[in-house]
Specification:
Helix content is 37%, strand content 25%. The longest helix has 21 residues. Helix 4 runs parallel beside helix 5. The strands form 3 sheets. The chain has a 4-stranded parallel sheet. Strands 2-3-4 form a 3-stranded antiparallel sheet. The protein starts with a strand and ends in a 6-residue tail after the last strand. The chain is globular. By secondary structure, the chain is of the alpha/beta class.
Amino acid sequence: MSRRIDAHFHWFPRKHFERMISRTSEPRVVRDGDGYEYRYEGGTLPVWPAWFDLDGGLEESRAATGPDTLLIATSGVTSGLFDMLPVTEAVDVATEWNQELASEQQARPGTLKGTAAVPLHETKIALEVAEYAIRHLGLIGINLPAATADGTIDQERL
């Protein structure tokens, strides 16, 4: 039996955005109706309520792709924003994000798989966060953004 794979499914843990509201410096989050607005140096990112509704997102994706589709959840553009945080905070935030995703993955075996968010301040730290997410939490890979806080992903330091 063949399966379809949707490798561009987004679900965001609301807990992350609630945590980021407490920040007074950028990057930070403010409530915007039922959603949020991610504010960072150089821009804003609206985060709509639909991205927190995992069951609704799964249902919508299934309607479009079929019931046997395996969904690969990514953090999308938000993963590039973790680099804007101080490194210790970025590791904590990424780990919490990954734990939330792993919990949802475990609750939906064979239906949902997750890719880890990793801060890219330093290669060693990124590898440590990725290894924990994959080996201990069971996520299937990492989500790399196109850009980091200080440039593109193809920097020599990475």
